[in-house]
Amino acid sequence: MRKILLITIALIVIASVSRAQSTGAQTGATTGAKSVYFELGGPGIASFNYDFRFGKRQDGFGARVGFGGFYIEGDGALYLPLAINYLAGKDGRNYFELGAGVTPVVIDDEVDGDGIFSSTFGHLSFGYRLQPATSGFTFRATITPVFGDFGFFPLYAGVSFGYKF
C-alpha cells in the first residue's frame, strides 16, 4: 500500500510541475529547459527522471524528480530521487552539473516476512551534461557520492540518456 501511495505522490508532483511549465509556454513566455531521461546508477539505481530549470534560461538552477528501483525474487525497492541542481555552461550545449538531494527508499522484503522498511540517503552530483539548445537527445555522466546510515561512498556514478523538450 505504501508503494502505491509513494508512486502516486511522485506522479502527481511530476504532472503538476509539467503542467505549470507548459501553461507558461502556452501564454507566450519563454521557458527554461525541461528533459526526461533514464539513469543507470546515480541516486535512483535504475530510474526515470524529469528535470527542469526554475527560470527561463537553459542553464542555472533547476530540480529533478524521479522514480526507480528493482524487484528480485520477492525483494523490491522503490527509489524516489529528488534534487536541486545547477547547470553552468557558455556554448548552450555542454554544461557542468552540480547538485544535491535526498532519495527516499521503500524496501519491501516479502521473503523474510519483514514487511516494508523505509529509509533515506543523501547524494551529491558532479558531472557533465550534453543538451541541445532547442530540443533533442541529452546525455549525462556524473560522479554521485552517496551518504547515509550505511556510510559514505564517494565514487558512486551514474549515466543518463534522454530527451530535452
Describe this protein's structure.
The chain has a single domain, classed as Porin (Beta Barrel). The termini are far apart. Strands 1, 2, 3, 4, 5, 6, 7, 8, 9, 10 and 11 form an 11-stranded antiparallel beta sheet that branches. The model is unreliable at 21-29 (pLDDT under 50). It contains 1 helix and 11 strands, in the order H-E-E-E-E-E-E-E-E-E-E-E. The longest helix is centred in the first third of the chain and has 25 residues, at 2-26. Strand 3 and strand 4 (75-79) form a beta hairpin. With 165 residues, the chain is of the alpha+beta class.
Summarize the structure.
The protein is of the alpha+beta class. It has a single domain (2-164), classed as Porin (Beta Barrel).
